[in-house]
Design brief:
Layout: E1 2-19, E2 25-43, E3 48-53, H1 67-78, E4 86-91, H2 102-117, H3 124-134, H4 138-143, E5 146-150, E6 155-158, E7 165-171, H5 178-192, H6 208-216, H7 219-225, E8 227-228, H8 231-237, H9 241-250, E9 255-258, E10 265-269, H10 272-285, E11 290-296, E12 302-305
Parallel strand pairs: 1-8, 3-4
Antiparallel strand pairs: 1-2, 1-12, 2-4, 2-5, 5-6, 7-10, 7-11, 9-10
Helix pairs in contact: 1-2, 1-3, 2-3, 5-8, 6-7, 9-10
The structure holds 4-diphosphocytidyl-2-C-methyl-D-erythritol 2-phosphate and adenosine-5'-diphosphate (ADP).
Adenosine-5'-diphosphate (ADP) binds near residues 67 and 178.
């Protein structure tokens, strides 16, 4: 049996370029891994089977569309294993369809767990390539820490960061579909007259002030630099998010933003005590289903228990 712990992410910058001919958008995606995470356990089994526990377990597909199952099959196919055998259990804490890359995290965790269970010793570079085939956010879940994702988010460069930042995540009732939020971003751009294609929208780049704030470990400077080009689209599809963002700001957050494609809202706090206070205020506000105080950055997917060699 092998257990892998894997983090959720928040995008401290999500710069979105125009829509490409292949339907994806070029990004300047600054990923930040937080301690809120899932655990994926791989045990020998027949075929690829799955179970999931946690508050959102009912929303997780347990068929071959689950990113953990897809990861197991992709790794087996890459190594030419004729009949992959694994039972995967997902202990899910990351909100589902919440803009925190929970499915991607489970895909990354399953790659690592199956690699260890099957004794394959796949090099990290190869795991990162397989991860990119599974989805744009999956490679970052292997890497963790803080990283800039270019292309559709899969071309990663680790970024320097100092100290620990304190975050609160307000979990919404029900998710938002990532493709629907990108489509809404395009629609809002068309509507405003700027256009939405790569000819219309400049290719985004990482904000130097944001990178300096991360390197300096300065939460006040990071708060001033946070940005998410998908936020307007997420709020357009779910207008009640404006109330959640306001509630966290009124409770003392240094800054509030939608996490990725949403609808989870992220709040940067000045320290751990402030984060606990903001989380309690958000839970009492009636503007979200629940709220979690956490911190980061933390490492990417890691084996936490494995059979004795
Ligand atoms: C927006 C972000 C920010 O990190 O994540 P979430 O906030 O949803 O977790 C990511 O770009 C999501 O990455 P991921 O969820 O892996 O997306 P994928 O499976 O690769 O793509 C799903 C769909 O999202 C859209 N998509 C995704 C990435 C990208 N750079 N441009 C896109 O337009 C496309 O419509 C694509 O068909
Ligand atoms: N292991 C998984 N956990 C959660 N969702 C999954 C998983 N595998 C596939 N999915 C599908 O991916 C969709 C997006 O979920 P998720 O990755 O949690 O959100 P987001 O893309 O907003 O970060 C879900 O609605 C679900 O249908």
């Amino acid at each position: 049996m092998v257990t892998v712990r894997v983090p959720a992410k928040v995008n401290v910058q999500l710069g979105v370029g125009g829509v490409r001919p292949d339907g994806y958008h070029d990004l300047a995606n600054v990923f930040f891994a937080v301690a809120l995470g899932d655990e994926v356990t791989a045990t020998p089994g027949d075929g690829v089977t799955l179970t999931c526990t946690g508050p959102d377990a009912d929303a997780v597909p347990l068929d071959d569309t689950n990113l953990a199952a897809r990861a197991a099959r992709l790794l087996a196919a890459h190594h030419g294993l004729p009949a992959p055998g694994v039972y995967l259990h997902i202990a899910k804490a990351i909100p589902v369809a919440g803009g925190m890359a929970g499915g991607s995290a489970d895909g990354a965790a399953a790659l690592l767990a199956c690699d260890a269970l099957w004794g394959l010793d796949t090099p990290l570079d190869t795991l990162l390539e397989l991860a990119a085939e599974l989805g744009s956010d999956v490679p970052f879940a292997l890497l963790g820490g803080v990283a800039l994702g270019r292309g559709r988010g899969e071309i990663l460069e680790a970024l320097p960061v100092s100290g620990t930042f304190h975050w609160v995540f307000a979990v919404a009732d029900g998710g938002l579909s990532t493709p629907a939020v990108f489509r809404e971003c395009d629609r809002l751009r068309e509507e405003s007259g700027t256009g939405a294609t790569i000819e219309d929208v400049p290719t985004p780049d990482a904000d130097p002030e944001l990178l300096a704030a991360l390197a300096d470990g300065d939460p006040v400077a990071l708060a001033a630099a946070l940005s998410n080009d998908l936020q307007a689209a997420a709020v357009s599809l779910r207008p009640s998010l404006a109330d959640t963002l306001r509630a966290g700001t009124e409770a003392g957050a240094l800054a509030a933003l939608v996490s990725g494609s949403g609808p989870t809202c992220a709040f940067l706090a000045k320290d751990a005590d402030s984060a606990a206070h903001i989380a309690a205020a958000l839970r009492a506000s009636g503007t979200c289903r629940t709220a979690h105080a956490t911190h980061g950055p933390v490492p990417g997917a890691q084996v936490v228990s494995a059979p004795r060699p």
